[in-house]
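call fold(seq) -> tokens
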Amino acid sequence: LARAMAGGSRSVEYDCADPAFTAGDLSSGCAPGTTVVLANIGKLPSEGQAGLLSIINSQAALPVGERPRFVATSCPDIGGLVGSGEFSEELHGKLSIFLIKIPSLDERTEDIPLIARAVVERLALEKGRGELSVTDEAVSLLSARRWPGNVTQLVQAVERAAGAAGGGAILPEH
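ret:
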């Protein structure tokens, strides 16, 4: 979704959950008109939050078309992290100009079979394994499970199961 919002402009993505990531990494990615995607923003430590806030504030004097555009994603509700003191209220305000709430997979379990089958189709095309498939039983097992990591966790589980299936049908035991 974040890449689609970039609308063809240059985009760079950073994973704030990566312990090696620092706000200093952003300096090269903040070119005019660039969309800066900050994945897992809720996992950014307070020092990183302060650095990011400083970078965003330094861009404020630039005309709108010359500023980088920041898109942040998070599984936990950032508002809740602000309330508990784990996330900067000021940074939250800067990043919350336009919010899109995508319900968790727990709230839309009917999407799990669609996502799982789409991942299998993508893998079959990428790997040239047209025989890769997922059984209805395996899909039922995936649908019955909770996915606190949301789509990312589900996709990774299907990718691991596809590897274990060796290019054939993904079964419940995979």
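The chain has a mean pLDDT of 87.
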